[in-house]
Amino acid sequence: MRKCSVSQRTTGFGHRVAHCNKKTKRTFRVNMISKRVWVPELNRFVRVKLSARGLKTLDKNGPAYLLEIGAI
User: Fold this and answer.
1) Long-range Cβ contact pairs of 9-16 (< 8 A, separation 24 or more)
2) Looking at the predicted structure, is the pLDDT value of residue 4 above 90?
3) How far apart are the first and last CA of the chain?
4) CB distance 6 to 57 below 8 Å
5) Architecture of domain 12-69
6) Which residues contact 17 (CB under 8 A, 6 or more apart)?
7) Which among 19, 26, 57, 64 would be 20 to 30 A from 50, CA to CA?
């Protein structure tokens, strides 16, 4: 499943719009990254699936943030 553990972002839906204003369905997929993160509180590595935005959030708040939000 393409869902970020931190930001909870999933696939979005919309339209591809041609020059003649004809609309066809399309999906906006999340930029997913599988990452091993060291969590000092657990004293081990944890593998999480993150979006690029979620990875930036994790860098800002630290690995303990995963425990706060209940991602692990």
Assistant:
1) 9/51, 9/53, 9/54
2) yes
3) 16
4) yes
5) Roll (2.30)
6) 23
7) 26
pLDDT digits (tens, 9 = 90+) for 53-68: 999 999 999 999 999 9
**Angle at CA 58, nearest 5°, toward 39 and 56?**
145
> Mean of the pLDDT values across residues 27-39?
95
Break the chain into its structural domains and give their ranges: 12-69
Characterize the bridge pairing of strands 12-17 and 44-51: unpaired
Query: Rounded mean pLDDT of the chain?
Result: 95
